[in-house]
# Entry
Amino acid sequence: MMALPETTGTFRWTHISTRPALVCDALEPVARHFFTTRPWMLGRSIGADHTEGWREVAAAIDVEPGDLVRVHQVHGASVVVVRRRGAGDAAPGLPDADVLMTDDPAVALAIQTADCVPILIADRKTGAVAAAHAGWRGLAARVPTVAVDAIAREFGSRPEDLIAAVGPSISAARYEVDLDVLARFEQNGFSAEHIGRWFYDGERPGHWYFEGSQCARDQLEVAGVPPGQIHLAHLCTATHSDLLCSYRRDGRASGRMAAVIRRAGETVA
# Structure
């Protein structure tokens, strides 16, 4: 069995069908969920079929394969809302989007990452859940804020009732970006204070190191989620080569990981 890096905060390792997966203890009472790792090997492209791997993910979260809802991720901020479905209803296909949400306990939501920030959200009062994929483009488009606003609009959630788990993503130390990335955040109206928290001077002129997980955390907090209810895994995908998938490290051969969430049977008062 491979050695697993130490976790911080409320995250811990578990094993599902002998494969390592990450869970957040703060989120667990509110919603079933997990973040997969490289040994799951869900394929080399976002939104691709990889039927057998996804069957294993569906089984791990106790839903039928047709009730594991995914999207074709496009590094944007579009939202797919999954309403309650009756017996025999067809599962949706793979629409272009990067945020999914539902209040239906019969379905699970999944997004894929290989350096980008995976965000799982659950409402401890209404039971609604959301999964969001946010690379730098998605973060510049305010995906965390969009997710919080959408779950409030669609299911009546209040930000103060949300629990958010931000899974493994590439750390600033391994993620150097150029002026185009920094400029996108400036053009989209983020404050100089926040930009200063997310971008660090790079080793080359006109380059910066970008901390996506901190960016996600700050956006969730600005959207109204209490700081104590936002949990970060602090695991760098580019650092742990045997365990986590990283496109920046391995290119097209990197594989993908999944972040999966399903509404629990009962909500927490």
Summary: The longest helix spans residues 143-155.
